[in-house]
Automatic annotation (TrEMBL):
GO terms for cellular component: cytosol. This is L-galactose dehydrogenase-like. Residues 11-121 form the NADP-dependent oxidoreductase domain. InterPro entries: AKR, NAD(P)_OxRdtase_dom_sf, NADP_OxRdtase_dom. GO terms for molecular function: oxidoreductase activity. It holds the Pfam family Aldo_ket_red. Coiled coil: none annotated.
């Protein structure tokens, strides 16, 4: 979750959806201003509490320590290791959050943090996942444009069968699709249910916005998600 207004609207929409049918993640460390970074516990604590209130949740599934490459620049790298993570680990212990993640653009930064944490917390499971982002990854990206350039059926008839074969051979683990309009994601999922009956094709869908959820568009999909169940934690 990102912007506070979006988070508030999402919280209203989530009231319509069974809690066991979705995961919620939110970011900490980087805030409203482009270069407002603060990984210290007082700011982290306030941020998490605010997220819970806006989302109307007692437990957040995933907390992401966001854009940690900037912690190298603004000298907060050790703050993350010595303050942020111990605090999040205590929240995980008390079951206020379920998982801890880190995000960065450079893979080298993520690797560096993981390696240093292995040294600092030997034998402990500290980081549950890492997140990076780019245009070239195994998510079928921006599928709404496939409607425009007449590649919609290419995705269904060529791209997905190929990715399913990679998943079958365990070269990849999950397949996702992304788009800005929720209606496009729903259309693809429904068409795949018809094309591949009884098969589990899409593992996750991703949409992204800053203010587009302010029109309450997510609310209209409440009934659709009520029938969905997530994988066990």
């Amino acid at each position: 979750m990102g912007d506070h207004l979006v988070m508030g609207v999402s919280g209203q929409a989530l009231k319509l959806i069974p809690r066991e049918s979705y995961y919620i993640s939110t970011k900490i460390g980087r805030y409203h201003h482009q270069f407002d970074f603060d990984y210290k516990v007082p700011r982290i604590k306030a941020s998490i509490q605010e997220s819970k209130q806006r989302l109307g949740l007692d437990v957040i599934d995933i907390i992401i320590i966001h854009d940690i490459e900037f912690a190298l620049v603004n000298k907060q790298w050790n703050v993350i290791k010595n303050e942020t993570l111990p605090y999040l680990m205590s929240l995980k212990q008390s079951r206020e959050i379920k998982h801890i993640g880190i995000s960065a653009l450079p893979l080298s930064v993520l690797k560096q943090m993981v390696e240093e944490l292995k040294q600092k917390y030997p034998g402990q499971h500290v980081i549950d996942f890492v997140l990076t982002y780019s245009k070239f990854f195994l998510q079928i990206h921006d599928i709404e444009f496939a409607l425009v350039n007449k590649q919609w059926n290419v995705i269904k008839n060529e791209t997905l069968p190929y990715l399913m074969s990679l998943k079958q051979s365990q070269e990849i683990k999950h397949i996702g699709i992304s788009a800005l309009p929720l209606s496009v994601l729903k259309q693809m999922v429904e068409e795949l249910k018809q094309k591949y009956p009884g098969q589990h094709v899409i593992d996750f869908v991703l949409t992204y916005s800053k203010y587009t959820l302010l029109d309450n568009s997510l609310v209209h999909y409440g009934n659709y998600f009520q029938t969905r169940t997530r994988s066990p934690s």
